[in-house]
Amino acid sequence: MPRRVRIRYTNKTDRKTPHERLSHVGGLNPDVKPWKRSIDQVVKDLESAEWELYVEENGRRVDVVWATHKGHNYLKTTADDTQPDSILPLLAECPR
User: Fold this and answer.
1) For 36, phi and psi rounded to 5 degrees?
2) Rounded distance, CA 19 to CA 53, Å?
3) How far is the C-alpha of 89 from the C-alpha of 76, rounded, in Å?
4) Strand pairing of 51-57 and 34-38?
5) Under a CB-based contact definition with an 8 Å cutoff, are residues 94 and 36 in contact?
6) Contacts of 61 by beta carbon, 8 Å cutoff, 6+ apart
7) Contact at 8 Å (CB) between 7 and 64?
8) Which of 48, 61, 58, 53 minimizes the C-alpha distance to 22?
9) Is 88 helix (H, G, I), strand (E, B) or coil?
């Protein structure tokens, strides 16, 4: 059974294209310890069905999926079309 995890934080790159903007995502484990993973690792986790990811905004949960644009894997919500611009870019920075 996949681990269902909420993304609460992101780390952003200095890249201007939305498909390359995020480098890491993170959140909190059930024991409230933070977790942080690279986008490449998260894509592997989603491909293998080990994790299911979502974001939550004002009580509304939206699933996070991976996609490819010009050979580059990226994350987006199911509410996004091609551009990953609805919720993920708005999250706070991952704690170090």
Assistant:
1) -150, 130
2) 18
3) 9
4) unpaired
5) yes
6) 54, 55
7) yes
8) 53
9) helix
CA–CA–CA angle 11, 13, 15 (5° rounding) = 150
User: In terms of DSSP bridges, do strands 22-28 and 9-12 run parallel, antiparallel, or are they unpaired?
Assistant: antiparallel
Q: In the chain, what is the straight-line distance between the N-terminal and C-terminal CA atoms, in Å?
A: 29
pTM of the model: 0.80
Contact 75, 66 (CB under 8 A): yes
Q: In this structure, what are the phi and psi dihedrals at residue 42, rounded to the nearest 5 degrees? A: -65, -40
78 pLDDT above the threshold of 90 = no
For 57-86, the DSSP string reads ETTEEEEEEEEEETTEEEEEETT-SSS--S
> How confident is the model over 47-54, as a mean pLDDT?
91
